UniProtKB/TrEMBL annotation:
Residues 3-97 form the HTH arsR-type domain. CDD domains: HTH_ARSR. It holds the Pfam family HTH_5. GO terms for molecular function: DNA binding; DNA-binding transcription factor activity. Gene3D superfamilies: Winged helix-like DNA-binding domain superfamily/Winged helix DNA-binding domain (1.10.10.10). This is DNA-binding transcriptional regulator, ArsR family. Keywords: DNA-binding. InterPro entries: ArsR-like_HTH (IPR011991), HTH_ArsR_DNA-bd_dom (IPR001845), WH-like_DNA-bd_sf (IPR036388), WH_DNA-bd_sf (IPR036390).
Length: 117
C-alpha cells in the first residue's frame, strides 16, 4: 500500500496556495471587500490563529494584501495574483468550447428529431 504524501508546504506557488479549500473560501469572502481576520475566522468556523496562517500563505503568494486600520489589520483580495491560474486554465478554453459546440449540435439534432417524429 502506498502512503499518501502531504503536499509540500510551499508558499511561493499560487496553485499550491489555492489547493486548500478554506483558502479558496477566504478569497471568495474577500471578493466583497476588506475584512479583519476575526470576521474571516468566524465566518469559516476556524480559530483566529488558523485563519491568520491561511492569510499569511495567501499574502505571500500575492493573493491578499493587508493594511493597518486602527487597532486591527484588514485583509483584502488582490486578484492580480490569480493571473497564472487564469492563464493556465485559459489553455483549456478550446477544449471546452469544442465540447459545448458538440453538445449544442447534439441538442439541436434531438430537437429536430422530435419535431419530425
Amino acid at each position: 500500500m502506498i502512503a499518501a504524501m502531504a503536499r509540500a508546504a510551499t508558499t511561493s506557488d499560487v496553485f499550491n496556495a489555492i489547493a486548500e479549500p478554506q483558502r479558496r473560501e477566504m478569497l471568495v469572502l474577500l471578493r466583497a471587500g476588506e475584512r479583519p481576520v476575526t470576521d474571516l475566522a468566524r465566518e469559516l468556523g476556524m480559530s483566529q490563529p488558523r485563519a491568520s496562517k491561511h492569510l499569511r500563505v495567501l499574502r505571500e503568494v500575492g493573493l491578499v494584501r493587508d493594511r493597518k486600520a486602527g487597532k486591527q489589520r484588514l485583509y483584502g483580495l488582490d486578484a492580480r495574483g490569480l493571473r497564472p491560474v487564469h492563464e493556465w486554465t485559459g489553455g483549456f478554453e478550446r477544449f471546452w468550447n469544442e465540447s459545448f459546440d458538440r453538445l449544442d449540435a447534439y441538442v439541436q439534432d434531438l430537437k429536430q428529431a422530435r419535431q419530425e417524429g
